[in-house]
Amino acid sequence: MALEVKQIPVGPMSNLVYLAVDTTTRDAVVVDSGWETGPIEKAVAESGARVQYIVATHGHFDHVSTMEELAGKVGGKLVAHESSGARYDLKVRDGDLLEVGRAALRIIHTPGHTEDSICVYGGREVFTGDTLFVGTIGRFDRERAGAMYSSLHDVIFRLPPETVLYPGHDYGEVRSRTLREERESNPYLGARDVGEFTSAFA
Questions:
Q1: Has this prediction a pTM greater than 0.85?
Q2: Contacts of 14 (CB under 8 A, 6+ apart)
Q3: Which H helix or E strand runs over 53?
Q4: Structural domains in the chain, sorted by start
């Protein structure tokens, strides 16, 4: 089923929070929260959405610091990967589905930026947190280079090329584009194997 996606800029680090609403039922999911709840609350109210879940793409402060506050104001269960050390209502693992109205959102574990990094795949769109941005990728430690390479090449770019990428920060020339466009233009995706990737970027 179709999702109506709203990008919500928050905070001083160009964070992008997402409100994804099932167009038939108006049930919704919020992806990340970050620095402030006000813009998210406004988007929820304006859309007439009923928030079912608030999902953390990973545990960094700029993505999760207001999640409990947001849940208290708009509702919804707090969701994070099972390797997250924080308290959440629902811990998920790779392949789990979140039912949001008539939509089923698939959790994709994409370690690299952090161990608990996940993407949320809706069929036509993927919310990538800090794993993949428009024109660049999330920072990672050298010991996570193999995981990051695999998450990018073996996981995210196995999704259909027409899938729309929605990143966790507004770091690119546009705020979203298809995976096909990203594959063709992102300089960090040109490594032929994990060794070349590690040598070039870790």
A1: yes
A2: 169, 170, 171
A3: strand 50-55
A4: 3-201 (3.60.15.10)
